[in-house]
Amino acid sequence: MFRRKLSALDYHNPAGFNCRDETEFRNFIVWLEDQKIRHYKIEDRGNLRNIHSDDWPKSFEKYMKDVNCPFKIQERQETVDWLLGLAVRLEYGDNADKYKDSTPDGAKNADNTAKNAEPLINLDVNNPDFKAGVMALANLLQIQRHDDYLVMLKAIRILVQERLTQDAIAKASQSKEGLPVALEKHILGFDTGDAVINEAAQILRLLHIEELRELQTKIIEAIVAVQAIIADPKTDHRLGKVGR
C-alpha cells in the first residue's frame, strides 16, 4: 500500500517493504529521517539510529510528537503513511521547479470527467492531513471508525446535513406543544379498582407509546443514513472514475 510513495522517494525496496517487520521498520524510519524529513539535526539523531536499543520505541514516540504526527505508535500503518506523505511534501518543496510542470499521463482528460462524476474524487484520500482531519471530525461527532476515510467523510456529511444545519437545529430547539388527550377514549385493558390509579396507568401507557414512536423514528433515520452510505458507488481514485 506504500509502493507509490516509496518509489517517489527512491526507497531501495518499494515493492517488498514490510512495516510489520520490526527491524525493517526501524531501519526505514532512520532512512526516512536521515534522507528525506531531516527534522532533527544530525547530532540529535543518535537515539533514533540506535535501532537495537530497548528504548527505541520511546525515542520513536518522541519523534512522532516532534513532527506532529496525529497517530499513536500502535497505529503503525497510519503512521508510516503519514510520515511518507510528509516526506513527499518536503521532497517536492526541495525540488519544486523540477516537478511543477509535470503532468501524469491522461490526467488532463480525466480531470473534467472526474469533476463532473464525483466532487469528492479530487480529494487525495491518502493525504495524511486529510486522514487526520477526517479522524478528528469522526471522533468529535462520535462516528464509528472505518478503514475507508472517504466513507467516514460521507457519513460526516450526512450527519451534518441532517443534524447540524441551521434548519435542523432550529427545528430541534422548538418547544413541543402538547395536545389535549381524552383519556376516556383510551381503553386501559384492566381495572385496578381505583379510578385515580386507572387514570395514572392510562397516562403512563400513552407516554410509553410516545417513547416507542420516537424510538421508531430514530431507527428509521439510522437506516436511511446507512443506506445512503452503502448506496454510494465505490470510488477508485487510481482509475480516476466511479464504479463498483
Number of helices: 11
Tell me the overall shape: elongated
Q: Quick check: average pLDDT?
A: 76
The biggest sheet, with number of strands, parallel, antiparallel or mixed sense and barrel status, is: 2 strands, antiparallel
How many domains, in number, for the residues? 3
* Range of strand content: under 5%
Spatial strand sequence of the major β-sheet: 1-2
Provide the low-confidence segments as ranges: 114-118, 235-244
Query: Which oligomeric state applies?
Result: single chain
Q: Your description of this structure?
A:
By secondary structure, this protein is mainly alpha-helical. It folds into three domains: 101 residues, no CATH class; 50 residues, no CATH class; 51 residues, no CATH class. It has eleven helices and two strands; from the N terminus they run αααααααααααββ. The protein has a two-stranded antiparallel ribbon with strand order 1-2. Strand 1 and strand 2 form a beta hairpin. The longest helix has 37 residues. The C terminus is likely disordered. InterPro entries: RTRAF. This is RNA transcription, translation and transport factor protein.
Write a short abstract of this structure.
The chain has 244 residues and is an all-alpha fold. It contains 11 helices and 2 strands, in the order H-H-H-H-H-H-H-H-H-H-H-E-E.
Defining traits:
disordered C terminus; 244 residues; 11 helices; mainly alpha; two-stranded antiparallel sheet; 59% helix
Give me the secondary-structure topology.
Layout: H1 3-8, H2 22-37, H3 46-49, H4 56-66, H5 76-94, H6 96-99, H7 107-117, H8 128-141, H9 149-163, H10 166-173, H11 195-231, E1 235-236, E2 241-242
Antiparallel strand pairs: 1-2
Helix pairs in contact: 8-9, 9-11
